[in-house]
Amino acid sequence: MRALLANILLLTCSAVFANNSEECCSANRWFSNASFIYWQAKLDGLSYAATGYRNEVTGQNPSKGELKRPDFDFKPGFKVGLGAHLPHDCWELYSEYTWLDTGSVSGSSTSSGLTPRWYNPSTNPPLEPGSPFLNSARASYRTNINVVDLNLARPFYVSSSLLIKPRLGLKGAYLSHKYDVNYQSQWHIDLDQTFWGIGIHGAFDTKWWITEKFGLYGNVAISPLWGEFDSKRKDTESGETYLNTNYQFHTIKPVLELALGLNFKTPIGASSQFLISGGYEGQIWFSQNQFLRTYAPKSCGDLTLQGLTLKFRFDF
Q: Would you call the peptide bond into 297 cis, given omega within 30 degrees of 0 as the criterion?
């Protein structure tokens, strides 16, 4: 029995650490890629108004209401990267930059029963829950995302058709968020937030080649980022400022990334290769909503990025 287990372990280890001439110890020294992304960026905790509250002036019981939020649309962005196959033991060094800007996404509501979700009790009259005087509200949101990844990776073939590639490196990010809320075209709440972070980036990539040229891929990554939030808020009513404050703090926030899709590869000439991949990609940036509120608890909503990624890679 011990001999059988030893043989199984030996065969398993031999398969895992076996090299494939196409992707392990590649003769191509360099590779580059460009990706088109069509993603939705959605920040939780951005409801700006609600219906369904009891009107304390009339005493009228409300009907079933709902929260009003901005419409988060899909927007185009890109990724660009450059890597090298190192001469020692099939290692790869790879860097990639990701950019996405949502532009301004907005929402507006007109109703006699609107209640504000962003309060300021110091205004005159106070802007607070149950305010019976609101009949219009609108909000606009914009985020800009800049991310740089630097990875060291080593591919392994578990079998002739299954490749795994663990990656370890660094992730750096700079994100900006801007959220403007208006009530009655009289109360204006201006919220700005930036976050920069850097941390360890760990990932595990897989490829399943169904034929010589077609296959599937599935990737997962986690990055705990240490960084700084800088959040500002300014409230005005009819041009008069009622609140103007900001706060900064350092913390660690994790980022989770998932991807699943299809691959197609073809040789170009005697020594180059071209690869196209396309599929779904999703990311969760935990607790990215640190906008200042005038009541507890803080919103602390997550930022989710998800959508289509179309990637072109060239090995040369």
A: yes
